[in-house]
# Entry
Amino acid sequence: MWLLALCLLPAAAAVVTGAAPSPRVTRWRVGALVGTAGVHLALTAMLWRLPPQHALNGWLGDDALGTIVLTLTSVLFFATAVYTVGYLARATPRGGRVFVSGMLGFLAATTVVALSQHLAMLWVGLEATTFAVAPLIFHRHDRRSLEAVWKYLVLSSVGIALALLGIFFLASAQHGVPGDPLILGDLTAHARELQPAWLRAAFVFLLVGFGTKMGLAPMHTWKPDTYGEAPALVGALMAGALTSCAFLGVARITQVTTAAGLTAFVQPVLFAFGLLSLATAAAFVIGQGDLKRLLAYSSVEHMGLLVLGLGLGGVGTYGAVLHLVNNGLVKGWLFLVAGNVVLATGTSSAAGNRGLVRTLPVSGVLLVAGLFAVTGSPPFGLFLSEFTILRAAVDGGHLAIAVAMLVLLAIIFIGMAVLVMNVALGEPAPDVRPVRESAWLLVGPLALAGLVLLLGVYLPGPLQATLAHAAVALGGRVP
Amino acid sequence: MRTTAELLLLLVVLTDLAVLGTSRLRTCIRAVAAQGLLLGLLPLALASQVTVHIAGLAAGTVLVKAVVLPWFLLWAIREAAVRREVEPVVGFIASLLLGALALALAFAIAGRLPASDVREPLLIPAALATVMMGLIVLTTRRKALTQVVGYLMLENGIYLFGLTQTESVPFLLEVGVLLDIFAGVFIMGIVVFHINREFDSLDSARLSELKD
# Structure
């Protein structure tokens, strides 16, 4: 019941805000956005207190990993919705009502993904996210955003189509095996009876398909263009929530293959994608000239870390799940701050910004702090999760991977630091005055920054228990 | 009924080749529409008895893939006043050869796959061939609209493969999949329309401003 409400509420709000007359972004539309986000967050919080729920014959359910992704999405969406109030007061996306409606549709689709226990349903939700964000990317209706949205649509549609083929392969693997078709619990319970040849094919297609939506290298090429052109708050939702949902898809199929005893097949594939993503990020972060594109490559890096952790298994899996939460929150924080920079100076390019700490005192400081958080410095949460993944590599005897990871992370740190320090410090142009920053635009990133800091020093008990459940379900263990 | 299904699958492969070999955008779209119609008839031909589920699937497929989407794409080229048309990176003869190669490869792969319950042995090779030829169209044509046609072919191939699994994928999800594909092509069509207005061309190769 609650699960259905969680999915249907944002969907209904999306339809109402999209269908109602007056094409402009009006006060009530923004109110509906924040209200829906608030109710969604409250319902999600309630799920933590209730026993596990089921709906639609077990197609929907809140298992540990799904709850984590749902909560991350909901928190991030609420912070972004509050930010949107300030954003729409200053910018007028030409999409008009489609903008608010697209955001709510995105929330509905990601909720379906997070709660899906049926893998084909997960696919339907993930595919729907593509179309919900397309109008948000295209908000300026100019050539650059057109190019970005076209690349995004073609690449992710083809990727997700291949994932559908993978789902059919999985159904083939399940032929003659007891249990309901494509239900996660039944797949893992009878994993060893699945046809291994079909299962391997399913894993490869699903990893490539969902990996495209995650933005794993080499399928990441849409990412810098899309994040660079989309409004920053859309980047926050995509880099924080959408990639997490896509990772959930990858985690689900890895869970099945691990339970089927195919670790020896799965592990090298995940390592390859993980390391390639880290290397790609390192190569393109150096000399990067745009803040939002920089964050896009940072997202590629963190997606790489997630699949590395998943591939390492053991405590690495726990590290990956914790990293999922940390990465989602920090991406929201940084993209919203980047949005403030764009609103104040009109550009996110390094050339157009100097001395942000002086012109935008709060956002500037948040940007510098965010640099340290996103690169995994203590005391932020990402230090803890990256360290756990690194420890799994050392414990598992994968020293080469541990060394490669450290070197690449160091390169990425340097590359990011150069750009961020350049725009944050330095002398602002003489005619630029400090800007009064709107509270609407600061509450979201400040709250997210607080959460990332909190997760670095203290993990609340229920969260720790759920993280442990999720890691164990994925075949890992708790450190 | 088996022979009917075989005939339909053969025609599906022929429509694939028709898309690969034609220089006219309209013919491409008509071929894909014909393919959609064939895809809609296939579940009827494959089923031992026609249930409500199968009839619904057939009707939905024909409506979306053979009527609404092709009509929409034809509308898009009429509005955009596109004439000649499919500018291939790879020539037509070469694409047809690639298509033939894909077909041979599809049969080779299908022969090696562990046989699951397949009522129609041609189904898996035809599905794989359509997927591959869809990818060929997607990667070797420069016009954005032709790429949408390639995407439709890719989805059609996956749909064919899905027909081996009709009993494990419930009706509701089939509707979801169909709706997603509909929305996808619809939004792509709108973007194509805007590309044409902005660039006075449907050439996706002009979309090259964004790079590192």
Observations:
- The two ends of chain A are 35 Å apart (CA to CA).
- Strands of chain A lie at 54-55, 60-61.
- The CA atoms of residues 216 and 303 of chain A lie 6 Å apart.
